[in-house]
Specification:
This protein is an alpha/beta fold. The protein has two domains: 2-30 and 285-399, Aspartate Aminotransferase, domain 1 (Alpha-Beta Complex), CATH 3.90.1150; 38-278, Type I PLP-dependent aspartate aminotransferase-like (Major domain) (Aspartate Aminotransferase, domain 2), CATH 3.40.640.10. It has helices at residues 38-50, 65-78, 89-101, 116-125, 137-150, 179-188, 211-215, 244-253, 255-259, 265-278, 286-307, 330-340, 370-387, 393-399, and strands at residues 2-4, 10-12, 22-23, 82-86, 106-111, 128-132, 161-167, 169-170, 175-176, 192-196, 224-228, 238-242, 320-326, 343-344, 346-348, 358-363. It has a seven-stranded mixed sheet, with helices on both faces. The longest helix has 22 residues, at 286-307.
Length: 400
């Protein structure tokens, strides 16, 4: 609750009230962020065995067998020789990219809508940065050709390394990376490819192995696969995977490895247990059921919003479903109106998005039931009529 303080400034006070809401804003794609069940049981046992924290960076005294097992399992899951885990998802990019791409003579060609952690890591690397149009392989090729022809600034010497950095699913757009075309371009010009799978690992593909699985491409065609455990696995932290020599180098050069506290053992156990369920190594088909449920929920919700006439961004099969609001004044009103209807959503406006491209970002989960989604669709439908958000209503009527 906001109020005006005695000195004339607006301030906020806790109301002391609680509301039970349908959560459509969580990254809990596979429903593993739960307080009961087999994963939760393994985490409780890990607390009893390891305690809550390492209290140290891994290179000093913070290495645990559970963290090492998580690394080996992650590498197997994504199809890479080795992997390294980090205690924080944002730091996985921001502290690894400077170690990977640092040094003179390196060029980073980055998607224009890459996450802040990529942008920050790229700037901190000291490398030259070029930006290509969002998810546009043709523009990427133009940038590559221009960079190779012109060479480095002033000297025009050839670039020592060129890195292409993209995301598996773009978290504000719900779009899936055009990976096959990007790999083709990468091979043609002998560049390196770094793919951020924060939102796609565990959420895309028949086996949940991310954007490579979704497109049916060989993970070996991607030089570095990065991901986080904060979404589909219900934990914290992230990973970098690649060749063994590369991972060994990263352990000694990444700031997060040398200076930051290592991943908490119970968090590592949470991610490891979720991974094993997804892979079917728990002896059940629970992981496959959750993957299918997420796929069905995401497409059901997206399709129904489109049928009602809403402007929805992104691709089918993506668990991120952005619905456009456009007018900035709709941002706070929509959030509060849905909260009053017991639905929690994330509304996104400037400066995260352009001023006139405000939106709701729905995040679907395998934990949502059909009744949950039907209730949310009904409430969004009523609010859409009230605020005139059905920008394609006439087109829908024509189709009917």
């Amino acid at each position: 609750m906001d109020r005006i303080s005695h000195d004339g400034h607006r301030t906020f006070e806790l109301t002391g009230t609680k509301s039970r809401c349908l959560n459509l804003s969580s990254y809990n794609y596979l429903g593993f962020a739960e307080n009961s069940g087999p994963v939760n049981d393994t985490v409780v046992r890990s607390i009893e065995k390891y305690s809550l924290s390492t209290g140290s960076p891994r290179v000093i005294a913070g290495n645990y067998d559970i963290v090492q097992e998580l690394e080996k399992t992650t590498a197997r899951f994504v199809g890479k020789p080795a992997a390294m885990v980090f205690g924080m998802g944002w730091a996985t990019n921001s502290t690894s990219i400077p170690a990977i791409c640092g040094g003179r003579g390196t060029l980073i060609i980055s998607d224009s809508l890459n996450h802040n952690s990529i942008v920050y890591g790229s700037r901190d690397s000291g490398s030259k940065i070029m930006v290509f149009k969002h998810n546009d392989p043709e523009d990427l090729e133009k940038c590559l050709r221009k960079a190779i022809v012109e060479g480095q600034p002033r000297t025009h010497r050839p670039w020592q390394k060129i890195w292409i950095i993209v995301e598996g699913i773009y978290s504000m757009e719900g779009e899936i990376c055009a990976l096959p075309q990007i790999i083709k371009i990468k091979k043609k010009y002998k560049a390196y490819l770094y793919v951020d799978e924060a939102h796609s690992i565990g959420a895309l593909g028949k086996t949940g192995r991310g954007v490579c699985d979704y497109w049916g491409v060989d993970p070996a065609d991607v030089d570095v696969l990065m991901g986080t455990f904060t979404k589909s696995f219900g934990s914290v932290g992230g990973y970098i995977s690649g060749p063994e020599e590369f991972i060994d180098y990263l352990r000694m050069t990444s700031f997060a490895s040398v200076y930051s506290t290592a991943m908490s053992p119970p968090c590592a156990q949470q991610a490891l247990s979720a991974l094993k369920i997804i892979m079917g190594e728990d002896g059940t088909n629970l992981g496959q059921k959750r993957l299918q449920q997420l796929h069905d929920n995401a497409n059901y919700f997206r399709t129904n919003l489109l049928k009602l006439g809403f402007q929805v961004f992104g691709d089918p099969d993506s668990p991120v479903v952005p619905m456009m609001l456009y007018h900035p004044s709709h941002v706070p009103y929509t959030s509060r109106a849905l909260l009053a209807r017991k639905i929690a959503v994330v509304v996104v406006g400037f400066p995260v998005t352009p001023l006139l491209l405000t939106r709701i970002r729905f995040c679907l989960s395998a934990a949502h039931t059909k009744e949950d989604l039907d209730y949310a669709i009904q409430q969004v439908n009523e609010l859409g009529d009230l605020l005139c958000l059905k920008f394609h209503k006439d087109k829908v009527m024509e189709l009917e």
